[in-house]
Design a protein that fits this description.
Layout lengths: L10 H7 E4 L10 H11 L5 H14 L3 H4 L12 H13 L5 E5 L7 H14 L4 E5 L3 H7 L2 E6 L2 E7 H6 L4 H7 L5
Parallel strand pairs: 1-2, 2-3
Antiparallel strand pairs: 4-5
Helix pairs in contact: 2-3, 2-5, 3-5, 5-6
Length: about 180
């Protein structure tokens, strides 16, 4: 995707190249399979074999396939909170976006579910650009290849994640990282 500001992006094409998942997982009413196939069906995919491939690929990418492969026709709302979050990520991945936006995707999850989501992010970053607004500095330091610190709408510092979290260049960034404010 060309993000040159002089290039006009049509909203429809922009929407199809970006997917998102939010802090509160909101599965659609219906089955696990329905949640993953919803987007592709809206996009015109009707072939059952293709939809089955999309379901398996998306759930595998979201580290959920092994847990739900035998109950794809069960209600999505019967899943645990962590599983629902990964299902929402799988639903976002079903249309193979270029960019995945995640807003505090593990904020309400237990440590085990958080770990599973983070593990899937490590694999997903090989195929997708991921922008994550994490719920903790510690998570940001674990998952960021590149990080940015914004304060009151101002970009304070940006750079490689490892460097920014181990040797911040701006005092405000260091203060935030070590917990002096925020």
């Amino acid at each position: 995707m060309d993000l040159n500001p002089s290039v006009s992006l049509r909203p429809a094409s922009l929407k199809s190249s970006i997917a998102s998942a939010f802090a509160l997982p909101l599965p659609l009413p219906g089955t696990i399979r329905y949640n993953v196939t919803y987007g592709p069906k809206l996009a015109g995919v009707r072939n059952r074999a293709t939809l089955d491939e999309i379901v398996e690929r998306s759930l595998t990418q979201a580290a959920l396939w092994d847990e739900v492969k035998d109950r794809l026709d069960d209600p999505a709302t019967a899943l645990s909170g962590g599983q629902q979050q990964r299902l929402c990520i799988a639903r976002s991945l079903a249309l193979t976006p270029e960019v995945l936006l995640l807003d505090e995707p593990t904020s309400g999850l237990d440590p085990i579910s958080t770990s599973r989501v983070e593990e899937s992010l490590y694999l997903l970053r090989e195929e997708y650009s991921i922008v994550i607004v994490p719920h903790s500095v510690q998570q940001a330091s674990r998952v960021a290849d590149y990080a940015a610190f914004l304060l009151s709408g101002e970009l304070v510092e940006a750079g490689p994640g490892e460097a920014m979290f181990s040797n911040p260049q701006d005092q405000r960034t260091e203060d935030y990282i070590v917990g002096r404010f925020g």
